[in-house]
Amino acid sequence: MQNFTPSGLSEPQLWQRIAFLASQKTHILKPFALTNPREAHRVLSNVARQDAYEIAKAGGRHAGLFRTYQGKNLAEVQRALRSYERQVDLHQQKLSSPERFVKDWTKRSIRTQQGLLRHWQEDLVRNRELAEVMRGILQERSIRP
What is the rounded CA–CA span in Å between residue 11 and residue 16? Predict the structure, then answer.
């Protein structure tokens, strides 16, 4: 039996919504973030990181991927995990050395640079979540990722 919050959402759905709102930087979370930014970041980062698999399993973000890969064989799930991990590594490299990946990086406007960095950061977070979903599928099958 699930506990429901006053909003009518189950607790996992509520946490999923909080993580989504935090990723969108909506005004709803700004007061909390402004009063204690370190705590807000810690809580929301942990929710997003630790629960990507649970959120997908509950039908939230990445649920389609979860359903698709539940029916795949072991080799396909492991290959997807490696691919997502490679993408995480690639985006970490892009964030640490953008000039290696973009011609004339220093000649680009600050706005363009910031846009690319933000895009790569979002890709990095998404690929981490997808890798976590794959790890969860493997762990559910009692296989160590």
Answer: 9
